[in-house]
Amino acid sequence: MQALLDLPFPELLFQAQTIHRQYHDPAEIELATLLSVKTGGCPEDCGYCPQSVHYDTGVTAGKLMAVAEVRAAAERAREAGATRFCMGAAWRAPKDRDVEAVAELVRAVKEVGLEACATLGMLEEGHARTLRDAGLDYYNHNLDSSPDFYGNIISTRDYQDRLATLERVRNAGLSVCCGGIVGMGESRRQRAELIAQLANLMPDYPESVPINNLVKVEGTPLADQPDLDPLEFVRTIAAARVTMPRARVRLSAGRQQMDDAVQALCFVAGASSIFYGEKLLTTGNPDVARDRELLRRLGLKSRAG
Questions:
Q1: Which of 12, 32, 150, 157 can bridge 7 by disulfide, Cβ–Cβ 3.0-4.6 Å?
Q2: Dist. CA 253–CA 270, nearest whole Å
Q3: pLDDT greater than 70 at residue 250
Q4: What is the pTM for the complete model shown?
Q5: Could you confirm whether 49 is annotated as catalytic?
Q6: Is there a catalytic annotation at residue 266?
C-alpha cells in the first residue's frame, strides 16, 4: 500500500481518476449534511475531539434533540440540495433507550425523503437491527487511524472495539460508513496502513469512506499539531479511490482549511461526496453558497436524490 502512496503524484492521480471513471460519474458530487443531535459530554479521550469531557474546549454538553427539531433540520438540508442526512451523538456507547430515541429521529429523516446515517459510538448486540428497522441506511464508525498509531490518540477503547461495532453493523444489513483522520502526526506508512485496513474490512470494504483532515481545536492534545502537507491529503484520497473503487469517498472534516485548488485536486483524485453545511458537529465547514460556487466553477453537479 505504501508503494501506491509513494507513486509520483501525476501517476497516482491518473490511476485514481481512471478507476473513478469506471465506477462513478466524474462530474457528480454527493452532498451530505451532518447534524450533532447530542453534543458534548463524551467520556472517551480521543485526542482530536472537542466533545470529550477530558478537555476544556468550550463545548457544553447537551441533551438529545427533539424529533421536531431534527425533522426541521432535515427539511432545510433537503431544500439546500443534500441527499444524505447524518446524525452524530457524543456517546461512548448508547444505551437501549438512547437507540430507541435515535430510531425516532431516523424515522423523521426518512419521512423527509433523505438517506439517513448515524454515528453514535459503539453498538451492542441488537442496536444496529433496531436502527435498521427504523430505516437507517448507513452507520458511521471510523477506524480513525492505523492500528499501530491508534494508541497515540485514544486510550479509552481499543481497535478491536471499533471492528466489533462494524461487524454488528454489517450483520444487521446496514451499509457501512467508515474512514479515518489524517494529519494527527502519523507517518505516510501509517496512512497507508489505515487505507489498507479499510480496504480489507470483511466481508467487503465500506460503501462510504470519509477521509478527514485534522481540525485542530484549542484545548485538545492535538491543537498544536503541525499542518499536513495538502498534497499528502490528496494522495490519501487517491489511495482510497484506487483500493476501494465502488465506495463513495467523502471529502470530510478539514475542508474549511483547504483552498479551492486543493479541493479540486481531491475531486480529481476520486472524492465523490462532501459534507455540506455550515458546521460539522462542533467545528466549522464551508458554507452552502461557497460550496455551490466552487462546484459551479468546476463544472460539477450534485447527485440527485
A1: 12
A2: 16
A3: yes
A4: 0.90
A5: yes
A6: no
